[in-house]
Amino acid sequence: MADYNKAISIDPLNPIFYNNRGDLKDINDDRLGAIEDFDKAIELDSLYSIAYVNRAFSKKLIHDFNGAVLDYDKAISIDSLNPIFYYDRAEIRMEMGDAAGACRDWLISRDLGFDIPDYHDLIDSYCDSNLNYNSN
């Protein structure tokens, strides 16, 4: 933490330093402190998609699911080809009870190349059997 504090004191306009310090705070269970650092990183660079994703993760951990989805929406608007963003948003949507939204995101993630063994069959099976989704 001291290294990031020093880096920020030397270059307070570097969003990467705030983002990385936010990650460290999150690892140390300081969710609100992490969110403050991610906010600052985003203030300094509104197109820093990873800061939105990191903030979304912290929001998820404090059960601010709506805020987390909004952050993923923004990250996806910046980098719409990142399959992990869709996959992570799907997980939150599922926790919120939005199975249809989760399936849409999982299928987009899969179509963009996200590949975990058995992932494709599992998602297709779940979405087809529970929501009559046709992934083709």
Structure keywords:
8 helices; Serine Threonine Protein Phosphatase 5, Tetratricopeptide repeat; 136 residues; 2 domains; elongated; mainly alpha
Task: Kindly report the oligomeric state of this protein.
Answer: single chain
Largest sheet: none
What is the typical, i.e. mean, pLDDT?
91
Task: Tell me how many strands there are.
Answer: 0
Order of helices and strands: HHHHHHHH
Helical residues, percent? over 70%
From the coordinates shown, what is the CATH architecture of the largest domain? Alpha Horseshoe
Q: Write out the CATH superfamily name of the largest domain.
A: Tetratricopeptide repeat domain
User: What is the third-level CATH name, the topology of the largest domain?
Assistant: Serine Threonine Protein Phosphatase 5, Tetratricopeptide repeat
